[in-house]
Design a protein that fits this description.
Layout lengths: L19 E10 L6 H12 L9 H27 L6 H19 L5 E9 L4 H10 L2 E8 L9 H12 L7 E5 L6 H18 L4 E7 L3 H5 L4 H15 L7 E6 L12 H10 L4 E5 L8 H4 L1 H12 L4 E4 L7 H15 L10 H17 L1
Parallel strand pairs: 1-2, 1-3, 3-4, 5-6, 5-7, 7-8
Helix pairs in contact: 1-2, 3-12, 6-8, 6-12, 9-11
Length: 368
Amino acid sequence: MPAALPYQTEPPFTHGQAPSTGVLLCNLGTPDAPTTPAVRRYLREFLSDPRVVEIPRAAWLPLLHGVILPLRSSKSAAKYASIWMTEGSPLKVWTERQAKLLQGALGEAGHQRVKVRYAMRYGSPSIASQLDALKAEGATRILVLSAYPQYSGTTTASLVDAVGEWSRRVRHLPELRFVHRYHDDPGYIDALVAGVQAHWRSHGKPDHLVLSFHGVPERTLQLGDPYHCECQKTARLLAGRLGLDASQWTLTFQSRFGRAKWLEPATEATLRALAAKGVRRVDVTCPGFTSDCLETLEEIAQEGRVAFLQAGGKDFHHIPCLNADPAWIRALAGIAARHLDGWPTREPVSPQDLAQSRERATAMGAER
């Protein structure tokens, strides 16, 4: 048998086809269904990534396949079932909507030669399949836009790894750019502020606001990961814009896993402590998640609520993520446009249009 070719076949080339630019909006991922087999497939891919679990493979993989997947898959499937939407997984639904709206926002801003797709780091649609699709559509330049505002080796760097894996089997590579972070982007902060204020206009203000970010092991901070610092800056900017003093808000970290020491303070422990101190109402928002998902809709809106009320709290509010909020789509379009700078993303002006434009300018000058 002939040996397999190391590189995949290139899509058909059409002479005269104008090159285009692609934007790939990448989120973490989700199971295809809220079932034990689907969740097990998803968790196997997710937890096998050495960026996510920095434990020697020889020690980690037997534990993952022999203990964690058999025990955790069915429990996680039940959690997913509790938040599943009619259209599917909330994370996938919101990310797909964001990509479509981003396409429209960029087009309205004059970037007509940009094609936007979305992908998941784990699960479907995969990063590789969507990069293939953009290439087949004529994209010679691709911007990889992370859905993670704060950079982390566990998330952002893993996206770059996935793109690198894809590139190793591609003969004709497109130009590639990556958006690594936008934790302090003014548009992103504006959108967060608008979301919190809209909730408060409808429901009144809380006694305390908790800003909950996804947790990572503490050792990642000690090893130089900037995630903790970027979460801190996002929280400070958001709280400042909301006019809150230090006694009115707390930054926390959620989604702890395993026995290692994680970033603190922990979200659930903080909610219990606030209730024990007599805080009657708490609002929780999750600035690090741009789409509502299992971690916000189940871990915060359900488990967090139970923890706070059981500890003596009286009123708990989860403030939705940015999702498809117009302010967020404008911010996302602004972030993408800045990183697209210098690439041909607008339709070329024809000689006739250029001549008409000059005639109008000359006529206006004569009128003055």
